[in-house]
Amino acid sequence: MVPKTLKPVKRHDALVKFSKEHHFGLLLCWKIRQGVMDKISEKRITEYVLYFFDADLKKHFEAEEKELFVKLSPDDELRTQAVKEHEVIYAMINNWRKVSSSTEELLVFADTLDKHIRFEERVLFNHLQELLSEAELTELINCHSGNDADADVAWNDKFWLT
Known about the structure:
69% of the residues lie in helices and 0% in strands.
C-alpha cells in the first residue's frame, strides 16, 4: 500500500515532452472505448487507430527507444518490460494491417496501451530520473523535440464525438 503522504515525483524537463505525448496516447484509448460504447464500426475505429499510430504513436515509440531506453542497461528489467510492451503493440498494429480487428481486440489494445503508458509514467520515468545524472537528463532535452502537432487535424472521421 502506498502511503498517503507520498507526493508525486516532479517530472524532469527532459521527460516532460514524452509525458505530454502520453496524454495523446491515453486520449486514443478513450476514443477507442468511446467508439466501442457508441457502437461505431470496428472498421472505422481501426482505420483511425492505424492512422494515429503512423502519424503519432510510432514516432513516439521510436523516440523512446532511441533516446530513453538506450540510457538503461540492456538487462535492466524495466527497459526489457518497456521494449516487450512496445513489441506487443507493434504486433497488434501489424496484424490489423492484414486482418480486420474485432471489438474485443480494440478494447484489448486500448487496455494494453493504457497500462503501458501508466507503467512508463509511474515506474519507468521515475527509474530514469533516479538513475541518470543531471547532465544525462539535460542532454535528453536537446535530443527530443517532441511531437506538438495535433494528428487529428488531418483526420475527418471524428467518430468519438457522436
